[in-house]
Amino acid sequence: MRGHPQPASWEPTGHLYTGMQTVEKGVSALANLRPSRIIRHLVHYATAKPWLTVILAVALAVLSVWYTVSALKFATSRNAMASSDAPYILADQAASKDFGSLSYLVVVIEPPSLQQGKQFVRTLSARLHGDTQHFQEVVEKIDSSSLDGKKLLYLKPRELRDLEQRLADAQDFIYDLSEEPGLIPLLSLINQEISRALVAYVIKGFFGTPESSSVDEDPGDAQSLDISFLSALFTEIDAALSTPEQYVFTSPWNSFFLKDDDVFSTDGYLTSKDDRFFFLLVDNRTQGGSFVKHNAAIRALRAHIAAVRRDFPDVQAGVTGGDALNNDEMVAAQRDTVYATLLALVSVAVLFIVAFRQVWRPLLVVTMLMLALCWTLGFTTLTVGQLNILSISFLPLLIGLGIDFGIHLLARYGEERAAQPDFDTA
């Protein structure tokens, strides 16, 4: 056409042609490195030297298992399942750094009586102190001597008000006793207080109101002496007269000033407020980085408790505390994971045998799966280094996920084996 020049034929120049050839060679090289080609070469090498392949696979699996057993660590703390940057995790780490970690096994004892509870605690603590293989510290009581002269600081405001009222009500009684101390004057003053209380009660019964004019004392004085003081006093007198060689004096005045005489208890046993439970704190020795590092000590502790309970059949006792609960949780998780893994392997093998109507080839695929699991554990130990209670439970899932390749391989091999004349070609 006029006015429109014809396009000249285009040919690459020398440098451009050389560059295009280089690109084509690179693409061809990448094509030769495709995964399918790599797998084909790997399969060809494995089929050419089958025994060497099997020996290397088994050796790598054994090495992986050995490395896993010796180097894999377990993070048994629940904090390991949360982000390490979480504010509450950082706060817990800071508190543990400043104040230490008070991780004790707690033995809870429920005796039918206080005396049996104390005997049980003494017997059990003696056994635990002797078992230094599992326990490094046992706290069965505290030394209350450091509280001498300071016990009023531990009273509640209500108890302080009650104490003040009791002192005011018993002021004359205490003053008379201080003028003439001794057991006989004490009993005489108690007799006077009982007589005054009896007279006040009789007059109140006749007239309906307390009669302050017929007696010299305020009617409030009639209640200044609590019956618990008499009980404690007569208990001390009886113990001193019946077994003088074994008698240890305990002041009855605790019950005189406070109704709750346990506030001034000098035994030092760890008890609940209502004295229903006794407690022992046990610091155990752990087993390194084991998934159940407290298990040996807890089993030993429960064995000691069972042995002591044979002599105290009416006493109930058990182990609790954060470490004990975590250990029971880890033991259950480990046991259930093993059962689930074995069940998954057996189920996969049976399903393979039924589906393919063969025995040896499905079993070989399951064996290959077990070797692959060993390699996976070794690789996890090398790259991650630790597992927690959640990640260890994924092992049965790996069986279901990892068997997929074996299914495809065996099905494809069956097709090719039927179509090809020999094993190597298939």
Automatic annotation (TrEMBL):
Keywords: Cell membrane, Membrane, Transmembrane, Transmembrane helix. It is a multi-pass membrane protein. It is found in: Cell membrane. GO terms for cellular component: plasma membrane. Residues 173-423 form the Membrane transport protein MMPL domain. It comes from the Bacteria. The chain crosses the membrane at residues 50-69, 337-356, 363-383, 389-411. This is Membrane transport protein MMPL domain-containing protein. It comes from Candidatus Entotheonella gemina.
